[in-house]
């Protein structure tokens, strides 16, 4: 498979992908959660955001008092129980007074999204940051797994109640790294659970150092090990992609089937973030690469 040559409006940061009835939907960080759509996965059009000043949830101001306007980060779009759901983050840069919220609708293109409330929050006293949500629907038993986190103590994992989509049971850290880690993505293939993460730093234009890493485990709780056997709780992670001459700081990935979606900063466009989509290739022993 060849890398997709994307056209149209591809400005995006922290993208998540869902393909429904042949149409491709990307939700991204931005005012009210930005939305892109495409009939073929190549040419993208921007749609109206999920939230506006008229319908943004009132609880945002209580849980994250310093949050500004419609600044919403790192959505995760998924389908469950015949409905479309988006988890998202509200925060302020560099602080862990943050929250992950939930909204749902009957279609990814819906104008009206129901506020399904707070999923988890973090504060100054916590050793984690409640941003960058990801949801895996387990193909073994249908259980829902919720991973999230950025810097601080690392990446956390909880199970979600299938009806309420709120955390139940225990929560564990499944990846840590002192130099910077965030944006977890879980997926399954060949009896393995794979954890993709972004190491280092985003949001610095052409100076961004984001890079995508992966480890795998036989159990969703881990331990996730890289190709060299280093645990992701000890800073491990095998490299999938780092920046090149044009595309700097690739990261905040989503993985849908064999498709890797992420943003990277375009050195030919003043370091602005753009959508990147490529097929993953798999080695004989089950490791992904580009």
- CATH topology descriptor: Tachylectin-2, Chain A
The fraction of residues in strands falls at over 45%
The biggest beta sheet is recorded as: 5 strands, mixed
Strand order of the largest sheet: 1-6-5-3-2
Helix content: under 10%
Instruction: Specify Rg, calculated over alpha carbons.
Output: 18 Å
CATH architecture field: 5 Propeller
CATH superfamily: Glycosyl hydrolase domain, family 43
The count of DSSP E runs of length 2 or more, i.e. the number of strands, is 23
Provide the succession of SSEs.
Answer: EEEEEEHEEEEEEEEEEEEEEEEE
| End-to-end CA span | 10 Å
Which stretches of 5+ consecutive residues score pLDDT under 50?
Answer: none
- Overall mean pLDDT: 96
Structural class: mainly beta
The CATH class turns out to be Mainly Beta
**What's the shape?**
globular
Number of domains: 1
Helical stretch tally: 1
Describe the protein's architecture and organization.
The chain is mostly beta strands. The longest helix has 5 residues, at 59-63. The chain is built from 1 helix and 23 strands. It has a single domain (7-289), classed as Glycosyl hydrolase domain, family 43 (Tachylectin-2, Chain A, 5 Propeller), CATH 2.115.10. The radius of gyration is 18 Å and the shape is globular. The N and C termini lie close together (10 Å). The relative contact order is 0.13. The model has no long low-confidence stretch (mean pLDDT 96). It has one helix spanning 59-63, and strands at 7-8, 16-20, 23-28, 30-31, 34-38, 43-47, 71-80, 83-90, 98-105, 114-122, 134-137, 144-148, 155-160, 167-175, 181-189, 192-199, 211-217, 238-241, 247-256, 259-266, 272-279, 281-282, 288-289. The strands form 6 sheets. The protein has a 5-stranded mixed beta sheet with strand order 1-6-5-3-2, with no helix packed on it. A 5-stranded antiparallel beta sheet has the order 4-7-8-9-10.
């Amino acid at each position: 498979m060849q890398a997709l040559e994307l056209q149209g409006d591809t400005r995006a940061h922290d993208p998540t992908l869902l393909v429904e009835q042949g149409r491709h939907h990307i939700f991204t960080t931005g005012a009210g959660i930005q939305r892109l759509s495409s009939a073929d996965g190549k040419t993208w059009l921007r749609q109206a955001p999920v939230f506006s000043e008229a319908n943004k949830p009132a609880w945002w101001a209580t849980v994250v008092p310093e949050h500004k306007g419609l600044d919403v980060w790192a959505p995760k779009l998924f389908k469950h129980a015949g409905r479309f759901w988006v988890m998202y983050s509200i925060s302020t840069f560099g602080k862990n007074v943050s929250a992950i919220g939930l909204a749902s609708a009957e279609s990814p293109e819906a104008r009206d999204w129901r506020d399904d409330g707070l999923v988890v929050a973090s504060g100054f006293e916590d050793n984690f940051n409640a941003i960058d949500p990801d949801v895996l629907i387990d193909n073994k038993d249908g259980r829902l797994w919720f991973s999230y986190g950025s810097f601080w103590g690392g990446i956390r994992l909880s199970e979600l109640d299938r009806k309420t989509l709120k955390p139940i049971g225990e929560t564990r850290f499944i990846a840590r790294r002192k130099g910077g880690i965030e944006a977890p993505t879980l997926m399954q293939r060949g009896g393995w659970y794979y954890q993709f993460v972004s190491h280092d730093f985003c949001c610095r234009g052409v100076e961004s150092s984001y890079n995508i890493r992966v480890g795998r485990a036989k159990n969703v709780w881990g331990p996730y090990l890289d190709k060299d056997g280093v645990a992701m709780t000890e800073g491990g992670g095998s490299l999938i992609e780092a920046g090149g001459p044009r595309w700097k700081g690739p990261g905040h990935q989503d993985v849908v089937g064999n498709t890797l979606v992420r943003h990277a900063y375009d050195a030919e466009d003043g370091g602005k973030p753009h959508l990147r989509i490529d097929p993953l290739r798999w080695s004989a022993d089950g490791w992904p690469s580009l």
